[in-house]
Structures are given as C-alpha cells and as structure tokens.
Design brief:
The chain folds into two domains: 83 residues, Arc Repressor Mutant, subunit A (Orthogonal Bundle), CATH 1.10.10; 65 residues. The chain is built from six helices and three strands; from the N terminus they run H-H-E-H-H-E-E-H-H. Helix 5 packs antiparallel against helix 6. The longest helix has 34 residues.
C-alpha cells in the first residue's frame, strides 16, 4: 500500500522528469519539484537531501542553479546560520515574466541577424519570420500575464469595512 509520502515522492520524480525533458537539468528539477510539493514551499539543505536521497553537494549545485535563474529564493533560518530555500507562490508568473525579457533580447539579436545576412535572402526571410514570431509571443504573453493578474486579484478576499 502506498503512503501519502510515497505519492508525493512519485509526483516529485514525475514532475522533475518532465522538467528535465523540457530542458532543465535533472537535479535542479528534482529540488524544484520537492520545494513545490512541500507544505510551505520552504526546505533546508538537509531536508532536501533526505527527501531526495541525494548528497549535500548535489543539493548545493541544484540550489545554486535555481537561485541564478530566479526559481527559488535563499533565506536564513531564524536564529541560525543555515540557509533554507523557498519557492514563491507566484513562481510561474515570475518565470514567464523573465522569459518575456529574454524574448525581447532574442528579437533584438535576430534583427541584427536579418541585417547581417540581408532581408531579401532565404536566411534573412527565415530570421525575419522568427522576429515576427517572437513579437507575436510577446504580445500574447503580455495579455496572458495581465489576465492572470486580474484573475488572481479577483480571488483575493475583499478588505473588511471598518
């Protein structure tokens, strides 16, 4: 019979595998999934190592990567020198918002590519279509992000009259 802990562990491994399939390194994917599935979204190194059955060095490397790409925050345990790691409740919003900035940079670089190869060449046309695609993605992503914010705000409890 599977326990709730076994079910959570199976979820963590499955989601981590899907993140890895999408391009994230396996260990950061496992650490991120474990944080996401934890009750309060906060775990220390020892907790992560124990839950995932990995070495402290593996946790350290994964946390370093996730911190660099903005997928978790580091904080100190109150009254301790130990760090713990937090995944934010709005993590996916933040992740996609940073992707929007990445699309802008790619678009700018692609425009220089169009100029470099010439707009009337096959390569120039291909690059220009890619620029157009990224412009479309930015427009759609911006609208989706606005709709998400409005949706989340509509779920927030109304302030009490006083």
């Amino acid at each position: 019979m599977t326990t709730p802990e076994d079910q959570v562990a199976a979820f963590v491994e499955r989601f981590a595998a899907e993140l890895a399939e999408a391009g994230m390194s396996r260990m950061p994917a496992r650490v991120f999934a474990a944080l996401l599935a934890s009750d309060d979204g906060v775990l220390g190194s020892a907790d992560l190592a124990d839950r995932l059955q990995i070495s402290p060095a593996a946790v350290s490397g994964a946390v370093r990567y996730l911190s660099q790409v903005g997928m978790l925050a580091r904080e100190r345990e109150p009254g301790s020198r130990r760090e713990r790691y937090r995944v934010r409740s709005d993590q996916w919003f933040r992740t996609f918002a940073s992707r929007d900035r990445m699309l802008v940079r790619w678009e700018e670089t692609l425009r220089t590519g169009v100029a470099a190869v010439g707009p009337d060449t096959a390569a120039g046309e291909r690059l220009a279509e890619t620029v157009e695609f990224f412009e479309f993605l930015q427009e759609e992503l911006s609208g989706m992000m606005d709709r998400w914010r409005a949706r989340q705000q509509s779920k927030a409890p109304a302030p009490e009259a006083g």
